[in-house]
Amino acid sequence: MGSVKSSTEKVGVVVSDRMHKTIVVKVERLIQHAKYKRTVRVSKKYKVHDEANTAHIGDMVRIREVRPLSAQKYHTLVDVVTRAKVSAADVLKEASPL
Question: What would the mean pLDDT of 56-81 be, rounded to a whole number?
Answer without folding.
Answer: 97
